[in-house]
Amino acid sequence: MWFKTLLTFVAVQAAAQSNPFRPPGPNDVRSPCPGLNSLANHGEKYTLLGDIKAKNPGFIPHNGRKITVPMVVDAFKEAMNVGADFVTAAGTIALQANPGLFSTSFDLNDVKKHNFPLEHDASLSRQDAFFNRDQSFDNDVWSQTLSHFEGLDTATIQAASDARWARENDSLAINPSVVFGARQLVVSLTETALYLSALGDPVSGAAPVPFIKSFFEQEKLPFDLGWTKPDQETNLATLGAMVSLLQLANPGAVPEGLNLGTGTVRDVFNLIDPVTGKLTTVTCALLGLC
Ligand code: HEM
């Protein structure tokens, strides 16, 4: 037992030292995703020759530019034990947000594009695009989310579900151009499942609240607070199961025709409409029609 604790301590120290946290500088770009931003904030200069990657596995370039799908698949697996099935799908969508034709990489600020097709209203820590297109961390919005964890050391499915649901209701009430249909609901539930899983446990969602605060507020992996990546992988199967639990804990109605679970999460991240089954194409996304 003591040996395992010692090994964990050594692993945490090694990760924290080889990948120190450095906030973005003036020429670095970031996204509306605390997951991608954290990996970049612990990242270093990255060369295509892979020499820095070998020294600094599990992270993406600190400048937030020229990120490929294999790079991000590798990084999330290594840093947070998030599986290739989810990250390949999300990363492929991110490529489409790059304004260049036939791009093989994306910059973190490309994925800010409103409703294209990952970014959405009612975020946990960002204002809706109607109020602020910048999509950086917003303390007022985050305070609303955080208020649902008051008095808790560790997040619960119920508290996280309530926090997400309150943000959805707030946007519906105050944003005259709000878009929040079945696709946005599934993406938003999946994001809640992601932070509960990667910072806590992919089955129970028990993530310590200080870890969650560090991740959202500083976009930092909380090595300094004792966090280590979970032993169990977060993947489409675990996310689908947690998305169902989150929605079950929620008093809100599910849009007609939407069945939540692994298949639905997979569909949405493969750009298939979760209600009609139709594939979202880049053209219809660009025209804002889907
Ligand atoms: C290549 C993989 C990924 C891409 C392209 C991606 C992209 C995005 C984008 C565009 C958003 C903004 C959605 C919005 O408007 O609120 C977002 C939000 C989010 N992402 Fe990621 N993401 C990826 C992987 C991950 C992973 C592995 C985690 C795990 C911890 C994560 C955690 C989150 C969370 C918690 C949010 C919600 C932020 C908020 O509501 O304020 N993401 N992601």
Automatic annotation (TrEMBL):
Entry keyword Oxidoreductase: yes
Top EC group: oxidoreductase
EC number: 1.11.1.7
Top-level taxonomic group: Eukaryota
Keyword annotations from UniProtKB, A to Z: Oxidoreductase, Peroxidase
Name listed for the protein in its UniProt record: Dyp-type peroxidase
